[in-house]
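dumping this here so i dont lose it
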């Protein structure tokens, strides 16, 4: 089976969050099921440097008024179609924002063009190759199925929602500029509170919708978590499925991780203390016997980082230290920095994101904090499990499914892997930190928690099998229609 995936980012070439990790790992896991994935990505500078070493596959003369070249690149077991459209993608900054952190003003066009290119490839524009199925990810490529249906193509499309909060909402006046007719501006198509939503367009035209955990699949059917799209999702309940994300066990492996000065496995987890010492030194924190808590995340309200700024003192009360690594909302970044200023030598805030630093934090910290107000799946807690970095998480979405709370029963049964808290409020987070710090004081209990965490299996194997089953159902149906 040949699948065309369309995505705005992919690890290891361009990453802002978990989306890139998923799109980089899932194709490798699917290959075990006889599925060959070719992923269409924008030609950002980091990708073009490699892609332009290869001859063009084809030329697009008019993608919403833009000329583009399609190139092929194979790297780290991934087969990529790179959309080389310099006017749209070859620019400073990140995939979505410029060098000053401001959204690119033409994101509406940049990702409409990506989706249109995906639709044209899926419909047979590339000589000698056509996919059996298309897999789109989030709003940035959700228009692919809209364009396909406008073309009259019946190629099956799976849309995966990684975070419903990001919806690609733009003025309806842009419809003619993205090549769509006025009739798609209706309540049962792309109209969204007087605007248009790229994600809604994908939701109503995809053949199957997956979200990245079964709990989140249930949550988004409610007004609380549905982000204004719960009505649409309820009408497509029969096409909605939760599949928990996995992690790439080769990239995230403390026994072989090139970013760890001291590597370890479940039998040699004591080596973490050497990474911890280096981590404290790197972030100019005082050494001590208490636990080292960390947060590697987007610094946003959704991720609960404002709550962490409020209750961080609980960590220091127990003799602990705290490292925060990430970027996002400037006000919350400032609040965290202000907290760190009140506790010099005990808290560090590192604004930005760096992959080697993220690995070292997991490899040296005792606990990872993820107090999200909502969380479709979450990958940080899975990395924490793999690295014996005990997760402290809110009980929501995929966090509630992947972490077994260290309550008395779970501890007695030796299945606990972390600490959950609810309600998702500062006092709940404070109590969870207290529970983790108390457990850390019992060295035997903590060692068992680490071991149980490291034995948890959140590889892509089971999840990839679920995706393969979805693909199989959709393509079998298409084969029957053809027959």
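and the seq i came up w/
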């Amino acid at each position: 089976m040949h699948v065309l995936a369309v995505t705005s980012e992919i690890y290891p070439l361009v990453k802002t969050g978990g989306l890139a990790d998923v799109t980089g790992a899932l194709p490798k896991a699917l290959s075990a099921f006889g599925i060959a994935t070719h992923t269409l990505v924008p030609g950002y500078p980091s990708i073009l440097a490699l892609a332009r070493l290869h001859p063009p596959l084809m030329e697009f003369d008019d993608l919403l008024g833009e000329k583009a070249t399609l190139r092929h690149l194979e790297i780290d077991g991934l087969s990529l179609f790179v959309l080389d459209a310099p006017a749209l993608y070859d620019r400073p900054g990140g995939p979505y924002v410029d060098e000053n952190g401001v959204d690119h003003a033409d994101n509406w066009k940049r990702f409409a063009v990506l989706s249109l290119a995906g639709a044209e490839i899926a419909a047979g524009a590339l000589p000698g190759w056509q996919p059996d199925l298309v897999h789109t990810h989030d709003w940035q490529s959700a228009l692919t199925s809209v364009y396909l249906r406008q073309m009259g193509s019946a190629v099956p499309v799976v849309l995966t929602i990684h975070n419903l909060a990001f919806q690609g909402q733009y003025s309806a006046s842009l419809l003619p500029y993205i090549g769509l007719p006025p009739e798609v501006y209706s309540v049962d198509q792309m109209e969204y509170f007087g605007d248009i939503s790229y994600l809604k367009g994908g939701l109503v035209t995809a053949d199957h919708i997956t979200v990245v955990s079964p709990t989140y699949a249930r949550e988004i059917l409610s007004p609380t978590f549905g982000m204004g799209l719960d009505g649409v999702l309820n009408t497509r309940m029969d096409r909605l499925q939760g599949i928990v994300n996995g992690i790439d066990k080769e990239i995230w492996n403390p026994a072989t991780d090139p970013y760890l000065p001291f590597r370890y496995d479940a039998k040699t987890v004591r080596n973490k203390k050497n990474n911890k010492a280096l981590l404290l030194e790197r972030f100019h924190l005082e050494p001590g016997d208490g636990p080292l808590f960390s947060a590697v995340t987007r610094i946003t309200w959704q991720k609960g980082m404002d709550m962490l700024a409020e209750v961080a003192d609980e960590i220091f009360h127990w003799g602990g230290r705290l490292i925060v690594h990430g970027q996002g909302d400037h006000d919350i970044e400032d609040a965290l920095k202000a907290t760190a200023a009140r506790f010099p030598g005990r808290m560090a805030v590192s604004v930005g994101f760096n992959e080697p630093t993220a690995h070292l934090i997991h490899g040296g910290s005792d606990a990872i904090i993820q107090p999200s107000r909502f969380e479709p799946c979450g990958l940080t807690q899975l990395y924490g499990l793999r690295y014996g970095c005990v997760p402290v998480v809110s009980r929501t979405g995929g966090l509630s499914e992947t972490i077994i709370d260290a309550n008395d029963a779970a501890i007695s049964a030796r299945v606990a892997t972390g600490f959950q808290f609810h309600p998702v409020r500062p006092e709940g987070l404070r109590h969870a930190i207290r529970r983790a710090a108390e457990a850390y004081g019992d060295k035997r209990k903590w060692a068992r928690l680490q071991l149980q965490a490291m034995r948890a299996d959140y590889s892509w194997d089971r999840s990839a099998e679920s995706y393969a089953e979805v693909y199989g159902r959709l393509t079998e149906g298409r084969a029957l229609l053809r027959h």
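Residues 479-483 have pLDDT under 50 and may be disordered.
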